[in-house]
Amino acid sequence: MYYIKKLGNFILLVWVAITLNFLLPHLMPGNPMEALVAKSQGKIDPVVMHALALQFGINNKPLWQKYIDYMTQLLHGNLGVSITYYPVHVSTIIGQSLPWTIILVGVTTVLAFLIGTLIGIVAAWRRNKLFDSLMGPLWMFMGSVPQFWLALLLLYYFGFQLGWFPQMHSYSAGDAPSFTWRFLGDAVWHSILPGFALLITTIGGWMLAMRNNMIQVVSDDFVAFAKARGLRPWTVMMSYAARNAVLPSVTQFAIALGYAVGGQILIEEIFSYPGIGYQLSQAVISQDYPLMQGIFLIIAVVMLFVNFAVDILYARMDPRVGTEEASA
Amino acid sequence: MARRPVVEVEHLSVGYMTPRGLATAVDDVSFTIYENEIVGVVGESGCGKSTLANAVMRLLGPGAYVTGGRIRVDGQDVYRMQPEALRQFRWTTMSMVFQSAMNVLNPVKTVASHFEDTFLAHVPNMSKREIADRAAELLRLVRIDPSRLRSYPHELSGGMRQRVVIAIAIALSPRFVIMDEPTTALDVVVQRSILESIMELQGQIGFSVLFISHDINLVTAISNRVGVMYAGRLVELSEAAFDASGGFHHPYTQGLLRAIPKLAVGEDEIEGIPGSPPSPFDMPSGCSFHPRCPYRKPECSMRKPPLVVAENYQVECHLTPAERRGELHVH
């Protein structure tokens, strides 16, 4: 019952997101045609213009008609044609950049969550001891370092001055993506600097959140009762204290994962990393409406899906969720 | 018969570090609990009775320290154990039922999983089958259907939760169980049936109990001996006479008894104890109860009262037995 309700919610929200995504550009003044014309400084033949207008779907049909067209195209997986990369389809561009973002930002988000949460657990468990006193300020400091600045520093020293790591892109020029060890190794090598910049600056947030939750849970009676029962300290720390303290962080983690798909515009820009964030900034710069719209759609749907998935996961993690008649 | 002591508390003092200095919560308390004996401890909120229970279990929270004395359980000094020895000692030799039945179970674990954790922490080679059988048996002992093993804590009522906690407390057949207000959070009917269960188990299995409560009638009804705490001191420790009113000696204990409304015919003669318990930062001189004592003598405010040990009671009071009965009014 709980799952069906959540699934219904998810579908409804996706529909709302798609509709909003359709409506927003239509509420804005101008259209991609005008942008294209401006770009070519009026040197476009009216016949060509008409052909382009047809292709971009710019016409005088009523809004509802356009909406139905949009939905139909969407169901066929057609997100339109990019203006910047004309005549490449938006879905192709997203298909090429999304994996890079998921690998770079997704993996660092998961790593930051795991590492930060683990440090938070231990710091709260040994509150005010040496480990806690060291880790708190260290990661707070790291978390307050501006990400782009750290990225630039890393790029300058390790990429440019020392030359240890490549300065741009996600794999060596002249290579084509393939599932060979050589290519994968090359991709990892390219992702180390941007990944490191992302990781270092986000661990602190997870650590602080977990430490705070954990400190609260540690003073709960069930933790004292677990200690009194002579359970092993590791069991008390992990499956009693941390197991309960991690619940609020899981929700946060879902949101972070959702954001991960949106890419990291600054980081991807600095390292010219061909992810979603990089494409989005390119799309904004060149007023590539179809691409923007496509990326927004993907971000919205993935965000909603991740939240749906976490709702399901949460019900598995906390038995009190999902039972309607739970007593206090 | 020579009774074997199970718990020996000698001159125990516990203090809390506060911004205003050290606040003494338990002050030079000594007592012994023998095999199969139930000793009740009563007192008002803040008298130090829960601190005493936690100190025996070596579960004092941060900021609380044992400042003196010694606690031995089953002959072993609780405060001289290494962490691993203490871990194994807990629950196999002494266990504890907490006050807050509502919150002592891990909300994300089933009842079965609580038993499993408890057994595996002490008997690592116990099989799943053995654990399940033993857990079901324990639940039956506290009159809970073994099908409840699959339940989560939030699916149980307060009374059932406390029964589960009691079943967990006797899981490893400890010699000594501390019960810190085990029924306070429950309604009267549930309270009664849980007390009956405790008494039944204690009779069947045999273990010593330190029973902490603020309800002197309840404690008198179930204990062999009753201790009374006031401002951190154990001011009286007496055999629990069947007729509660006659068995107590300290003026404070008598005051507590008079404060209980009686359901007998006639006028209600509820009498409170005038004044309120002292703050640990502002202890009265001499006997800490003297400002509230109806029978106080001049020396009560000057010297600490001696420990008067009689055949079936001990009491910390300057008054003679006759004076304590109120036969001689000093003022």
Report on the structure:
Chain A has 328 residues and is mainly alpha-helical. Chain A has 2 domains: 74 residues, no CATH class; 228 residues, MetI-like (MetI-like fold). Chain A has 13 helices and no strands. The longest helix of chain A is centred in the middle third of the chain and has 38 residues. Chain A is globular. The model of chain A has no long low-confidence stretch (mean pLDDT 86). Chain B is globular and about 70 Å long. In chain B, strand 1 and strand 2 form a beta hairpin. Chain B is α/β, with parallel strands linked by helices and 331 residues long. Chain B contains 10 helices and 12 strands. The mean pLDDT of chain B is 88. Chain B starts with a strand and ends in a 7-residue tail after the last helix. The chains are: A mainly alpha (328), B alpha/beta (331). At the A-B interface, helix 9 and helix 10 of A face helix 2 and helix 3 of B.
Short recap of the structure:
Chain A is built from 13 helices and no strands.
Oligomer: heterodimer
The total of helices of chain A stands at 13
**Major sheet details of chain B:** 8 strands, mixed
Report the radius of gyration of chain B as a whole number of Å: 21 Å
- Helix amount of chain B, in percent? 25-40%
CATH topology of the largest domain in chain A: MetI-like fold
Annotation keywords:
heterodimer; A: 328 residues; mainly alpha; MetI-like fold; 74% helix; B: 331 residues; alpha/beta; four-stranded antiparallel β-sheet
Give the helices and strands, then pairings:
The complex is a heterodimer of chains A (328) and B (331).
Chain A: H1 2-27, H2 32-39, H3 46-56, H4 63-75, H5 90-125, H6 130-144, H7 147-161, H8 181-218, H9 221-228, H10 233-261, H11 265-270, H12 276-285, H13 289-317
Chain B: E1 5-18, E2 21-34, E3 38-42, H1 49-56, E4 64-73, E5 76-77, H2 83-92, E6 94-97, H3 111-122, H4 128-141, H5 158-169, E7 176-180, H6 188-205, E8 208-213, H7 216-222, E9 225-230, E10 233-239, H8 244-247, H9 251-258, E11 307-309, E12 313-316, H10 321-324
Parallel strand pairs in B: 3-8, 3-9, 6-7, 7-8
Antiparallel strand pairs in B: 1-2, 1-4, 4-5, 9-10, 10-12, 11-12
